[in-house]
């Protein structure tokens, strides 16, 4: 056993862990800010940031301090009792997001499941949809998590194969097409569930005006708009919420990933009081949702976002990242999409698959991950510096140059 040999750990993972991921062969042992160090002592620039779970970088000092302080007090009560972090967390998150109420959960998928339950209950209790008829409209290419109900409206064959029978009550329409959405709305429609920018699909930004038109259609037909901002929210795009770029408000937002500061799984549904208010004691719950430690970490995350500094970094450095990546179009890159410190880099056909590119980038000390075969996703921590952005893009340019010969 050589604990400085990555191969040792790759072997353990291969033998003992279910094979539901295909990670790059990098074995991280420690991390700080935008950098991780592997077991052999090699350093890597983390340009993925846990798919936005690490928006504030690894081990942000404010978040670590809040965690340690809460560890010295109380970590879990269950919701059978009150505790002194829950109400403050909910108030601070609601005020930050300009919403009325917060339902704390743990994983992103749980937040989405919870929003679906709330929307259905609202449809029956408030809108007056006949029992068991509520429909939720989703978008093609969506990613909202991995539960049975959520994969029931996924159109990714890898995510759905062999998992049927699926949950009914969902209709899918083409993402970015407001007319398709309008045609799908019926008297039984409870909600439209959308990512304002589709992350897993390859950082797809919908056409201008689309999200405002979705909002208008929802208002016209008494349908809830649920924005899944688990990946797009909390600073990533240069605004607190991706919908803010369009001046659009959702009725419910799902938040997750960065809400836990890269420390714990913390998620939430936030939104209108008359919608979340349909929940009554016993009708929904979670043992760990809203626990003191999660709330303390969540409050520290809210405090980091309240100053707007992180959003500003994402805006300014994001503009730089997009400008630099844009220079590679025609040099191994077909297209760059995204907003803020979030970019989907579509590789040219001459480059081939993204996997060997991300493997070569890792060998050169830059961590990104391919999504779908030919897209590389860049989502660095918002604490990254301009020089570090340049390092990552220069390394990508060199790798693409070498492949093109
Ligand atoms: C990651 C993600 C989820 C699921 O979050 P988990 O914490 O992995 O369950 C849901 N929606 C979006 C948009 C995501 O990016």
From TrEMBL:
<dbReference type="Pfam" id="PF00202">
    <property type="entry name" value="Aminotran_3"/>
</dbReference>
<keyword id="KW-0028">Amino-acid biosynthesis</keyword>
<dbReference type="GO" id="GO:0030170">
    <property type="term" value="F:pyridoxal phosphate binding"/>
</dbReference>
<keyword id="KW-0641">Proline biosynthesis</keyword>
<dbReference type="GO" id="GO:0042802">
    <property type="term" value="F:identical protein binding"/>
</dbReference>
<comment type="pathway">
    <text>Amino-acid biosynthesis; L-proline biosynthesis; L-glutamate 5-semialdehyde from L-ornithine: step 1/1.</text>
</comment>
<keyword id="KW-0808">Transferase</keyword>
<dbReference type="InterPro" id="IPR015422">
    <property type="entry name" value="PyrdxlP-dep_Trfase_small"/>
</dbReference>
<dbReference type="InterPro" id="IPR015421">
    <property type="entry name" value="PyrdxlP-dep_Trfase_major"/>
</dbReference>
<keyword id="KW-0663">Pyridoxal phosphate</keyword>
<dbReference type="InterPro" id="IPR015424">
    <property type="entry name" value="PyrdxlP-dep_Trfase"/>
</dbReference>
<dbReference type="InterPro" id="IPR005814">
    <property type="entry name" value="Aminotrans_3"/>
</dbReference>
<dbReference type="InterPro" id="IPR010164">
    <property type="entry name" value="Orn_aminotrans"/>
</dbReference>
<keyword id="KW-0032">Aminotransferase</keyword>
<dbReference type="InterPro" id="IPR050103">
    <property type="entry name" value="Class-III_PLP-dep_AT"/>
</dbReference>
<comment type="similarity">
    <text>Belongs to the class-III pyridoxal-phosphate-dependent aminotransferase family.</text>
</comment>
<dbReference type="GO" id="GO:0004587">
    <property type="term" value="F:ornithine aminotransferase activity"/>
</dbReference>
<dbReference type="GO" id="GO:0055129">
    <property type="term" value="P:L-proline biosynthetic process"/>
</dbReference>
<dbReference type="InterPro" id="IPR049704">
    <property type="entry name" value="Aminotrans_3_PPA_site"/>
</dbReference>
<protein>
    <recommendedName>
        <fullName>ornithine aminotransferase</fullName>
        <ecNumber>2.6.1.13</ecNumber>
    </recommendedName>
</protein>
């Amino acid at each position: 056993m050589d604990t400085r040999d990555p191969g040792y750990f790759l072997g353990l993972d291969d033998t003992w862990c279910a094979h539901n991921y295909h990670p790059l062969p990098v074995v991280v042992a420690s991390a700080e800010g935008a950098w991780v160090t592997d077991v052999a002592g090699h350093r890597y620039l983390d340009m993925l940031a846990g798919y936005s779970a690490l928006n504030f970088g690894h081990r942000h000092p404010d978040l670590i301090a809040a965690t340690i302080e809460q560890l010295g007090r109380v970590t879990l009560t269950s919701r059978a009792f009150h505790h002194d972090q829950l109400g403050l967390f909910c108030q601070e998150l609601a005020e930050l997001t300009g919403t009325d109420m917060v339902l704390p959960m743990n994983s992103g998928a749980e937040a989405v499941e919870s929003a679906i339950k709330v929307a259905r209950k609202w449809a029956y209790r408030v809108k007056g949809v006949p029992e068991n008829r509520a429909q939720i409209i989703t978008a093609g290419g969506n990613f909202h998590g991995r539960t049975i109900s959520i994969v029931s409206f996924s159109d990714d064959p890898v995510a759905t194969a062999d998992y049927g029978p699926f949950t009914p009550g969902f209709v899918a329409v083409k993402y970015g097409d407001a007319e398709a959405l309008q045609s799908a709305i019926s008297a039984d429609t409870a909600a439209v569930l959308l990512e304002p920018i589709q992350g897993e699909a390859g950082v797809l930004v919908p056409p201008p005006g689309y999200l405002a038109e979705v909002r208008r259609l929802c208002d016209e037909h008494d349908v809830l708009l649920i924005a899944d901002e688990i990946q797009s929210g909390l600073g990533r795009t240069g605004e607190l919420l991706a919908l803010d770029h369009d001046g659009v408000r959702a009725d419910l937002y799902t938040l997750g990933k960065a809400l836990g500061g890269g420390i714990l799984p913390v998620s939430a549904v936030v939104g209108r009081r008359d919608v979340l208010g349909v929940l009554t004691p016993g009708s929904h719950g979670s043992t760990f949702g809203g626990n003191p430690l999660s709330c303390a970490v969540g409050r520290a995350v809210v405090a980091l976002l309240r100053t707007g500094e992180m959003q500003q970094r994402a805006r300014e450095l994001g503009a730089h990242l997009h400008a630099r990546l844009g220079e590679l179009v025609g040099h191994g890159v077909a297209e760059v999409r995204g907003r803020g410190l979030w970019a989907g880099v579509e590789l040219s056909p001459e480059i081939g698959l993204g996997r060997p590119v991300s493997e070569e980038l890792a060998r050169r000390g830059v961590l990104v991950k391919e999504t779908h075969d030919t897209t590389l996703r860049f989502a660095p921590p918002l604490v990254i510096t301009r020089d570090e952005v340049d390092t990552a893009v220069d390394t990508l340019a060199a790798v693409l140059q070498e492949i093109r010969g």
